[in-house]
Amino acid sequence: TLKGDKIFLKPWEVHITTPGVSPEESIVNVSAGLSNSTGKKVEAAVVFKVIDPHGDEISKAETNVTINGGGSNIACANLPVAPAHLWSIENPNLYRLQTSVYINGKEQDKEESIFGIRKIEMDAKQGFSLNGVPMKLKGGCVHHDNGILGSASFDRAEERKVELLKSAGFNAIRCAHNPPSPAMLDACDRLGMMVINENFDCWRMGKNPNDYHLFFEDWWEKDTKAMIYRDFNHPSIIMWSIGNE
Predict the structure, then answer these.
(1) What is the pLDDT of residue 15?
(2) In angstroms, rounded to a whole number, what is the distance separating the alpha carbons of residues 142 and 29?
(3) Nearest alpha carbon to residue 164 among 193, 185, 137
(4) How far is CA 23 from the centre of its chain?
(5) What pLDDT is recorded for position 84?
(6) Counting CB atoms within 10 angstroms of each CB, which of 1, 10, 99, 171 has the fewest?
(7) Cα–Cα distance for residue pair 86/118, rounded to 1 Å
(8) CA–CA dist 65, 108 (Å, integer)
(9) Which residues are catalytic?
(10) DSSP of 61-101, one letter per residue?
(11) How far apart are CA 134 and CA 131, in angstroms?
(12) How far is it, in rounded angstroms, from Cα 231 to Cα 16?
C-alpha cells in the first residue's frame, strides 16, 4: 500500500544512477518524480539521504522544486559517497536512499529505495566487465515458478532459489520469460546474482490461443515502461531483454 499526502512521490519514479564509480569516491545521481493533486502551485523541499551498508548516514542533499496545481515536476541531486563500497557478486554491498518531501516544514511523503554502486561495461575485446573486471556470465534461464509451490511468489522461496543457483556456480540468470517478482530481484541484489530482465515470451505470434499476442499491440509499450520503472534501481540487473527467442 502506498500512502502520501496531496503532494506525493510518484510511484516507481525515484530513480538512482551512479555516473561516477570508484572505491575512493562515487557519485550517486538521484531524481524523484513529484505530483501535486491540489489546485494550487506549491514550493516543495525534497531531501535526499544516503545510508551506507552499516546503517550510517553518509551523504545528504536538499533541493527546492515548484509544482503547479494538478501538475508534476522532478527533483534532482548529486550525492558524493566516499569511500564507496561497490556492489559485486562477491560483495553485494547495498545502500539505501531516503527521499522526503516537505511543504512549509511539514513532511508530505517519503520513500526508501535500495541501490548498489557498480559500473558495467561491454566492448568487443573484453566482453562484459563489472567494476572494471572482465567476466563471463555463467547461468541459465530461470522461470518464475517455485516448484511444488506453483507460480505464487514467496520471499523465502525466491531467496532459496537464488541461494541454490549460486551454490551451483551461477553468477547470472535470465528471467524467462516475463518480469520476475520484486522478491526475486531483492534476493539477487542481496546475494550477488546478476540478472538479465526479460519482458515478453511472445510478441504478435502466439504460442497458445490465449497468450500475450492478443494484447501485444495495445500493451507492449506500457508494460515495458512499467517493468523498467519498477526495476530501475536494482543493482543486480545488468541487461534488459525485449523478449524470448
Answers:
(1) 98
(2) 31
(3) 193
(4) 21
(5) 98
(6) 1
(7) 6
(8) 14
(9) 245
(10) EEEEEEE-TT-EEEEEEEEEESS---B-SSSB--EEEEEEE
(11) 8
(12) 11
The distance of Cα 172 from the centroid of its chain, to the nearest Å, equals 16
C-alpha cell at 82: 566516499
Residue 195 CA to residue 173 CA, distance in Å, equals 5
Backbone conformation region of residue 212, classed left if phi is above 0, alpha if psi is from -120 to 50, else beta: alpha
Residue 60 reports pLDDT greater than 80: yes
> What's at 90, amino acid-wise?
E
The closest of 9, 228, 26, 232 to 115, measured between CA atoms, is 232
Dist CA 38 CA 56 (whole Å): 36
Q: How far is CA 227 from the centre of its chain?
A: 9
Phi-psi region of 190 (alpha: psi -120 to 50; beta: other; left: phi over 0): alpha
pLDDT of residue 5: 85
Does residue 1 carry a pLDDT above 90?
no
Band of pLDDT at residue 230, cut at 50, 70 and 90: very high
